[in-house]
Amino acid sequence: MKMKKPKFKQTETGMLPEDWEVNTIGNVCKSISQTYNFKDEYQIIFLNTGDISNGQVLKKSYMDIKNLPGQAKKRIKINDILFSEIRPINKRYAFIDFDANEFVVSTKLMVIRCNNIIYPKFLYYLLTEIKMLRYFQMLAESRSGTFPQITFDIIKTIQIPIPNLNEQRTIVRFIENIDNKLILIQKQNHTLESIGQVLFKHWFVEFEFPNEKGKPYKSSGGEMVDSELGMIPKGWKVSKIGKEFETILGGTPSTTNKSYWENGNVAWINSGEINKFRITEPTAYITKEAVDNSATKLMPKGTTVLAITGATLGQVSRIEIDTCANQSVIGIIENKDISSEYIYLLIKHRIIGLISHQTGGAQQHINKKNVNELDILLPDDSRMLKFKKMMSSIFKNISINCFESQNLSQIRDSLLPRLMSGKIRVPVEVRA
Known about the structure:
The protein is α+β, with helices and mostly antiparallel strands. Helix content is about 35%, strand content about 20%.
């Protein structure tokens, strides 16, 4: 049977299917400021703005009530939407799809609770669509204050499209199928990363790599010798990062020279990208002229990058593309004898110690000299080669997954606004 062509109507939000309605954010939900009662609690999970990102709750660890900061006030429950008031474009938001009785959140997070007009997850997708985020950011920047900030009173008059509840649920399920695939890829990658970290620790911290007979080296009586880093296997050596590897400190081309930032084809990242598990796309593209006339340098794919100052201090990632970086990023490049996989896992293992020994002053930071002078353990060539062979397939699978996730995210982001405006409609009959 031939489907009837849908009819559209002009509304305050643009062209919508004729059976859709328009309403305001304030009419379909409210901002909740229910204070948490700590009377019978000793420990609680506190969520600040930095503990949620792009739909996910990043922290679920308990802390003592007595150690809670002053802004730990708001109670939440299942189906609430958490949305940071500060810099909405930074995507500090999450949907609560779990029992949240033991959670308290910051007063800097809006707690948005839906009424029966709208399906909670549908509103969540509306509020987090990129055009809406950009609009929120514009509103935030138009206000005077220390930070770009929005409040519920500012956004409650914004008009949004509302299909019937059945169609809302169908749209949500369609998007959730993509989101679930993205979550699965992420879990696979974190499992692979965990395997790499466990093997690294087993071989290069506990020294229980297989000996010639396939038995754990140290516990089977393998010979150990003294070194600057303590007892290490015979034949291994201690060196320094700066002696073994090329390290690159990034830079930022002049932002007043617009030609450096227009029609470029050289990838460039800022330190905010180091928060990502792997870096598969740049913050911006710059021109070759920009590279030639600034301190920034091109780093090859596979380089380990770490943030050396600011909010991302101590974050470690790995670039999956050739890219330049800004001055808050240091790159450590592999050499022909020491694999990039080993460098990455080594820095992940040592970064906390490096920061704790070197930071100080009002602005915590580390510098290139601190990184170059870091003592590192280097195994014999045979052991390094065997470890590289094991890790290369793990890291290759992580890279493939990251690019698949990037492509899937781009498809999702292109479909979302069309689904939310009725330009693409999913038949209600196919819902699960």
